[in-house]
Specification:
There is one protein chain. The chain is mostly beta strands. It has a single domain, classed as Beta Complex (Metal Binding Protein, Guanine Nucleotide Exchange Factor, Chain A). The strands form four sheets. Strands 1, 6, 9, 10, 11, 12 and 13 form a seven-stranded mixed β-sheet that branches. A three-stranded antiparallel β-sheet has the order 5-4-14, with no helix packed on it. Strands 2-3 form a two-stranded antiparallel ribbon. β4 and β5 form a beta hairpin. The relative contact order is 0.27. The mean pLDDT is 88.
Length: 131
């Protein structure tokens, strides 16, 4: 697991909300308009975007599970309503979480959707911020 360094929030946060447009880092697709998401600091282990999967045998050796490399992130935009997004895609459910991806290029995860709270969390390190 890797840990990402802290991010300078002075250019990104205003009144606890996103100050700029939030776009996909790969295809520039608009995900959120300014002032649509709240900033929260909450640790979460988000799978890395590009990685090789490792097959790990389970007890008994018959079945195998896929193990992913994760990155510990703590800076997120939180959105309470899926309809707030201009563009976002969802993965299948994994441990009561759906991972968020760019709906245009399908690269991600850029964050996660917690099925219990119905909130979406976009990792500041996984997106581009454009004025």
């Amino acid at each position: 697991m890797t840990t990402t360094p802290s991010i300078d929030l002075t250019e990104l946060v205003e009144n606890a909300k996103n100050k700029t447009n939030v776009k996909c880092s790969h295809c520039e697709s608009l995900m959120l308009k300014p002032a649509c998401a709240d900033y929260v600091e909450s640790e979460f282990d988000l799978p890395e975007a590009h990685q090789k999967t490792r097959q790990q045998p389970t007890d008994g050796g018959a079945e195998q599970r896929t193990e992913f490399t994760c990155e510990k992130l703590k800076d997120f935009w939180v959105v309470g309503d899926m309809f707030t997004f201009e563009n976002i895609g969802l993965s299948h459910t994994v441990n009561n979480v759906k991972y968020l991806i760019c709906a245009d290029c399908e690269i991600g995860p850029v964050g996660y959707h917690d099925l219990q709270t119905k909130q979406c969390f976009i990792a500041l390190h996984r997106v581009k911020h454009v004025a």
